[in-house]
User: Fold this.
Amino acid sequence: MKYLIIVLILFSTVTGFSQSIQLVPEKMDTVHVKVSEATYKGKKAVRVIGNNYNAEELAIIKNIMFNDGTIELDVSGDRLPGTDTSFRGFIGLAFRLQNEKDTLKYECFYLRPTLGRDEDQLRRNHSTQYISAPNYPWQLLRKETPGVYESYADMVAGEWTHLKIKVEGQKAWLYINAASQPALIVNDLKLGNSKGTLALWIGPGTDGYFSNLKITNQ
Assistant:
């Protein structure tokens, strides 16, 4: 029996340790958002709504440390009723988040769900996005390197979309739903090979739902 235990320990060390993270409001630090428990389209979830369109909107998950590995979760984003049509239901995940002298630094993949089936191809090409706070917002990345940090993926606003984010060193890959190939590849994460926590991320005017968070550390 003791040899079996040793083998199992060695196996878990080599392959990484997976864990499902319970998403409940009391296990999060909120930054300009309101978080509540919900059941949405058949899934137990948390609902995240922002309260400041001009600031960070995050629900930071406590007691998680992530460097390399895989993150998976289900998200659903749509416009809040009555918001401007320029809002896209922005929703995603921030990772390797650090708080340095009251400045939040993080990498982030997010979606613009209302663009997933837009009739304008250029807007479709902005369906997925990478950003890095605080120095690389989407506006700067699109201006300096158009098309490099955003791409198209099929999605529907208000419906569940599965995200898988794979991170290794300074590289990251974003997979949408059951796709075997990534929708977006980033070869130069702006914070380098860093370490930090995770946060549920939304943009202005978003009604966001998050469910089934799972991480596998390398």
